[in-house]
Amino acid sequence: MTTRKTYTAEFKRQAIELAEREDVGPIRAARDLGISTSVLYRWRLQAQKAGQTAFLGQGRTTLTPQEQEIQRLRKENEILRQECEILDRVSPNRCQVP
Fold it and tell me: Which residues contact 96 (CB under 8 A, 6 or more apart)?
């Protein structure tokens, strides 16, 4: 099993800057840095969308209490739908899902 490489936010920003230079370009920058061009393009897109807030963490964001509650309710809702499907197979029209 291969391990996934992680790059610092500073490395990503410098890679984007290097790729934007006219004398280097994204293909050469990616090759020189040992990353794929698709990764470099994805980083550039993230930087354009998020600006200064791009690359803040390790990909895991802290959810707000409201987001945590929504996530919990979605899981609960999925479990209830599955239970209704099982009950409906045993006894049709026993469980009504909107």
Answer: 84
pLDDT digits (tens, 9 = 90+) for 39-67: 999 999 988 988 877 887 655 566 788 98
Residue 4 phi, psi dihedral angles, 5° rounding: -80, 135
Among candidates 38, 50, 39, which has minimal Cα distance to 12? 39
Nearest residue to 41 (alpha-carbon basis) of 11, 57, 10, 20? 20
Output the furthest CA–CA distance in the chain (Å, rounded): 70
Q: Show contacts of 83-91: CB within 8 Å, 24+ apart.
A: none
d(CA 41, CA 59): 17
3-state SS class at 49: helix
